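Troubleshooting entry. Yesterday's outputs looked truncated, so today I'm pasting the complete records for two proteins to confirm everything comes through intact. If either block looks cut off, that's the bug. Protein one:
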Amino acid sequence: MALATDFPRLWRDPATPQRERKRMLRLLIEDVTLLRKDELVAHIRFRGGATHTLHLPLPLNAWQLRQTDPDVVREIDRLLDEHTEREVVDILNQRGLRPGVADRFSPVVVGKLRRAYKLDDRFARLRRRGLLTQEEMAGRLRVCVRTVKEWRYAGLLTAHTYNDRGCCLYDPPSGPLPTKHQRRHRHQPDPILLPSCTGGAV
């Protein structure tokens, strides 16, 4: 009598063992017919003569269960426009997103996904935007690579990091170009010239 009047409560009760749930189903259901097409269709016939049809999605294959959500892959693609892979990893983990084969993202996982889905790395994206290597920038400015680095640290050139080792590409120069010794701060005094034993300055 309790089963007939309060089936949902008994079914959901944690104290109800699985074997009893199976017995409850056998008391209610005469048979089930399954049809597999674009979806799973279950025709249920109850012992009292009533019928009910369920339309269910097909179960995922094993490889689909391990696959990273396509929305997450698209987000990785978007983030790589402005971030290195390590930065992408930190953003995804902070948002609580997960890959299909691990509990957390790592640079290795992001790298594998990028290659699997043929996503361009950050270097290729920046090159497509016209950014220059250190050597190309040095050639444009007719200075050595070391000077390019110094001007970058002094804020005279704009660079964008493209990997987790700190390697950079540079925005093409525009407007007034830097010149030699421009890295010296204005407040820095001129060097003091002292007489040397040869009569020169040191």
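Protein two, checking that the full record survives here as well:
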Amino acid sequence: MPARRLGLLALGVVAVSFSAIFIRWAAAPALAVAFYRNAMAAAVLLPIALARHREEFRRLSRRDWAIALSAGGLLALHFGLWIPSLSYTTVAASTVLVTSQPVWVAVMGRGMGESASGATLGGIALSMLGVAIISGGDLGLSGRAGLGDLLALLAAVAAAGYFLSGRTLRARLSLLTYVGIVYTTCSVLLAATMAVAGTPFSGFSLRVWGLFALMALVPQFLGHTVFNYLLAHLRATVVAVAVTGEPVGATLLAFVILGEVPRWTAFAGGAVILAGIYVTLSAQTRRPAPVPIE
């Protein structure tokens, strides 16, 4: 692999690993965090996409728009579930569970009629065992931690649906057009949810606004968008395996910065989940592989 692409992969993993840390530091309403993270990114990317790819927008069919909008909706659901999970469970448990996305893509793909080898099914089973280890340990600790685990797991399922709905569209659209539509749709839906829920749009300190901007710059621009860029140059399997390094980075950062020591079940279950993801993705090396977005 060229050094430049390897460097971008490493940059993306480190960038998304900071996501949970910034969210904890902000201590702002979860919906507000999700909204401003995406809205700030969309405010920069959409105008650039419109200026550079106006004809591409015009060529989009109704079906293309439907897929793009549904992808944005699933992304909003993903953030709306995962960010609150960090208020209930540890960074380690939350990030490990949310990066189980490749396994859920394999499960959904099988439900849609895609074939799955014995190794793929074995990898899925191994990952589910890891989920059970983490969730069982956290439920033994408190129902609050168990709720956080459940939210993170549902966020992973939403992310898997996001990938499945948009993977064909991404293959035909430029990076800026795709993320411009998806991030904007996600932001609009989160804003509507905030309005209904009565979540404030303002009144935050300068420090919190700065953290919102950091979330848009680091995890969103340098993380998600870099991974989407690399899809045009690397096998999807390579990107997917790289993203599973996020819980390792996030756990180390949480220990060093927040002083958060995860339970042994997070380590044990995380190792099992990552092993299951590796087996699942290795079994699909010769076919299109899922790409996590967290």
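Both blocks look complete. Sanity check on protein two: The longest helix spans residues 143-172.
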